[in-house]
UniProtKB/TrEMBL annotation:
PROSITE patterns: HTH_CROC1
InterPro entries documented for this protein: Cro/C1-type_HTH, DUF5753, Lambda_DNA-bd_dom_sf
Protein name per the record: Helix-turn-helix transcriptional regulator
One Pfam family, short name: HTH_31
Domain HTH cro/C1-type span(s) in chain numbering: 16-70
Organism taxonomic ancestry: Bacteria, Bacillati, Actinomycetota, Actinomycetes, Kitasatosporales
Length: 286
């Protein structure tokens, strides 16, 4: 279990090593073609040192990788922008967002699917502006109005992944407490629940409610997010949020355990159809 940047270096290195192998090159041959010493290739592949985006581009050229989406994903893992060298939108908020949050956004922007268990608040990708502000105010009591405005702006910008082509596929299991906790007052909560009903009807969104009547369940240990990537499952990662940081789990056994946990929660939760009715009922009573 490590912090995001270390995990990303190792994942990037592992993927570059696999691409080198597919290209039929030894690390020494790759280094020679790149004009480097072999030790540099080894350090990159083991994730023991950071790697510049320019070096990633050079290796991808050496390995003959032309898949644009794969190249962009690997460049994001290196902390870069896109192939044209343009930074992604969250780079404009570097002075406001902590590195762990920027790391989360970069993964979210490139993932093909996201599975999440939420036990306290509505998922950020489905929050209304008013709800997002109320949650942010509660988490950052001393934040200025300007900073609150910026963080809400970022939260809303993140939601563009659901409107991308192709969109992020979001599967969320929501504990009933998420729907019952009155965040921002009755009016804010009523509009938020209406937004959830709208989101539940989107083809790329699957919402399930885990009612109180389900009793104790494997999710009582806390919320989590699983990011999946269509180009390579080796980049899949579990993210656990804490008050001051995020932890990333990348081992196959961790991914398997959390995937099985999510599947079990999905079985115990209401079906998407019944969940929609449940949310609509909660909205009517809000």
């Amino acid at each position: 279990m490590q912090h995001g940047p270390a995990v990303r270096r190792r994942k990037l290195g592992a993927e570059l090593r696999a691409l080198r192998t597919s290209a039929g090159l030894t690390s020494g041959e790759a280094a020679r073609l790149a004009g480097w010493h072999q030790s540099k290739v080894s350090r990159i592949e083991t994730g023991t040192s950071g790697v510049k985006p320019a070096d990633v581009r050079l290796l991808l050229d050496v390995y003959g990788v032309t898949d644009r989406q794969l190249r962009e994903l690997l460049l994001v893992l290196s902390g870069s922008g896109d192939e044209a060298g343009r930074h992604h939108w969250w780079h404009a908020y570097r002075g406001v967002l902590p590195p762990t949050y920027r790391d989360f956004i970069s993964l979210e922007s490139q993932a093909s699917a996201m599975r999440t268990l939420e036990t306290t608040v509505i998922p950020g990708l489905l929050q209304t502006p008013e709800y997002a502000r109320a949650v942010t105010e509660a988490a950052l009591e001393d934040a200025s109005e300007e900073r609150l405005d910026t963080l809400v702006e970022v939260r809303l910008a993140r939601q563009d992944v659901l409107r991308a082509s192709p969109p992020l596929e979001l599967s969320a299991v929501l504990d009933e407490a998420v729907l019952r906790r009155e965040v921002g007052g009755p009016g804010v909560m009523a509009r938020q629940l209406e937004r959830l009903v709208e989101a539940a009807r989107l083809p790329q969104v699957r919402l399930q409610v885990l009612p109180f009547t389900a009793g104790a369940h494997i999710g009582v240990t806390g919320p989590f997010v699983i990011f999946s990537f269509s180009r390579t499952s080796d980049l899949d990662v579990v993210v656990l949020d804490h008050l001051t940081s995020s932890l990333h789990l990348e081992r196959k056994e961790d991914l398997r355990a959390f995937s099985e946990a999510f599947n079990a929660l999905s079985v115990h939760a209401l079906s998407p159809e019944d969940s929609l009715d449940f949310i609509a009922g909660a909205a009517a009573g809000a």
